[in-house]
Design a protein that fits this description.
Layout (H helix, E strand, L loop, with lengths): L1 E3 L4 H11 L1 E9 L2 H8 L3 E8 L7 E3 L5 E3 L2 E6 L4 E3 L5 E2 L3 E6 L4 E3 L5 E2 L2 E4 L6 E3 L9 E5 L17 E5 L6 E3 L4 E7 L10 E3 L5 E8 L3 E3 L5 E9 L5 E3 L5 E8 L6 E3 L5 E2 L6 E4 L6 E2 L7 E2 L3 E5 L3 E2 L7 E2 L3 E5 L7 H10 L7 E5 L13 E2 L25 H10 L2
Parallel strand pairs: 2-3, 3-5, 3-6, 4-7, 5-8, 6-9, 7-10, 8-11, 9-12, 10-13, 12-14, 14-15, 15-17, 16-18, 17-19, 18-20, 19-21, 21-23, 22-24, 23-25, 23-26, 25-28, 26-29, 27-30, 28-31, 29-32, 32-33
Antiparallel strand pairs: 1-2, 33-34
Length: 405
């Protein structure tokens, strides 16, 4: 049955039969007969909501070519396939949520959509689109069995992208050129590899990548907000063309031993920091030799023995806190002292080494460049609370968390 809010059901059926164009404000489809009526429309104007039991086991929108509105299907345990072989455009959102038996989505002719939500689709293994699908609004993919995002790989224009909780996901390779935010949360299970590549991306407002084994942003030039690499398993990272960012955070990447930001000249975020912490194999912090300006704070903590890329700094608008379990008093701390004496650092400058309590994240004393003893907040390894798997609010939570440093 089709429950139509703006007109009688008979009018909708007559419209579909007579001209294959269906117009309404909102329609709720409750059974397979209603789904068949919708499937016969070539052009739909209005929102279509499929209720539990509307399709079993297949929802096939055979004749639908365009939807000026949303397509919504939530809370169903029977539908296993959603197909729309002729559908080219959806001006509103596609929301497929909590469809526990859904195994496949087939949209081979799709070209442009609004937002896309694929959430809690525990059986979903395949999303089929064509190379012509190049534009979408915000894309959120969470808790599926997808192994790749190939169905979205040709998107060149996306407003936001969030991917998390997809335990079989091995590859995220995207063609996106610009985006407001990218949030790649915890996806793969232990011992699985996840490759993340956004090699055509040139600009973003915020980027966060978590739990990846390889990360590539070859063309990225500008991140107006935070660029965050957190709890990843890659050994090296390079952003060869990044020139300006609001802030950079590299936290808890246990295999990282080399990083390179050869073109980076400025971190200009008013609220973002330059934070490098808990990267246990990173013995030397370097790779940003062109960086001259940091508008806010610098906070480096870990087991590193040397910092090769701070002498060239000309302006640090906030504080500079450096701490390590290694003996850095006669090397790094001297450089920090010199930056403070030359008025490069506007706020407090503190450097401490050989922190006995660093490994346990507890407070203790060590050699300090400002003449005092190091505190638990600035000594050794910064204690990072466990972050949740990405959810709808993960990006906001993570950003708020990072800004607290």
């Amino acid at each position: 049955m089709v429950s139509k809010f703006a007109a009688p059901v008979a009018a909708l059926i007559a419209s579909a039969a007579a001209q294959s164009a269906c117009t309404f404000q909102a329609t709720t489809v409750t059974d397979q007969q209603g789904a068949s009526v919708i499937a016969g429309c070539t052009a739909i104007s209005g929102n279509v909501v499929f209720a539990t039991g509307a399709a079993a086991p297949t929802l096939s929108l055979d004749q639908v070519e365009s939807v000026d509105g949303d397509i919504v299907y939530t809370q169903d345990r029977t539908v296993s396939l959603i197909a729309a072989p002729k559908l080219t455009t959806v001006s509103g959102a596609i929301k497929f949520n909590n469809l526990t038996a859904l195994n496949s989505i087939s949209l081979p002719a799709i070209e442009k959509t609004g937002d896309v939500q694929l959430i809690n689709l525990a059986a979903l293994q395949t999303v089929t689109t064509g190379t012509q699908y190049d534009s979408a609004g915000a894309v959120q993919i969470s808790n599926t069995q997808l192994s790749t995002l190939g169905g979205f790989g040709n998107l060149s224009s996306v407003s936001d992208m969030a991917v998390s909780g997809n335990t079989l996901l091995a590859d995220i390779t995207m063609n996106i050129g610009t985006v407001k935010s990218i949030t790649i949360g915890s996806n793969q299970e232990a011992n699985r590899g996840l490759n993340v590549a956004f090699d055509n991306l040139t600009m973003a407002n915020m980027v966060t990548v978590q739990n990846a084994t390889a990360v590539s942003f070859k063309a990225l030039k500008n991140v107006t907000g935070a660029f965050n690499l957190i709890f990843n398993n890659f050994q090296t990272f390079s952003a060869p063309n990044l020139t300006v960012a609001g802030g950079i955070s590299l936290i808890g990447n246990p295999q990282l031993d080399n990083m390179s930001f050869p073109q980076l000249t400025e971190l200009n975020g008013e609220k973002n920091t330059f934070l490098i912490s808990n990267n246990t194999k990173l013995t030397t912090i370097g790779g940003f030799d062109q960086l001259t300006t940091v508008r806010n704070d610098i906070n480096f903590a870990g087991t590193f023995q040397n910092i090769t890329s701070i002498k060239q700094l000309k302006r640090v608008g906030g504080t500079m806190i450096v701490s390590s379990t290694s003996d850095i008093a006669n090397s790094v701390c001297q450089d920090v002292n010199n930056l403070k004496k030359s008025l490069v650092v506007a706020g407090k400058a503190s450097c401490s080494g050989q922190s006995k309590s660093a490994a346990s994240n507890a407070g203790g004393s060590g050699t300090s460049s400002d003449g005092g003893s190091s505190s638990s907040a600035a000594a050794g390894i910064v204690s990072i609370p466990a972050l949740p798997t990405l959810s709808a609010g993960f990006g906001a939570f993570l950003l708020q968390f990072l800004l607290s440093f």
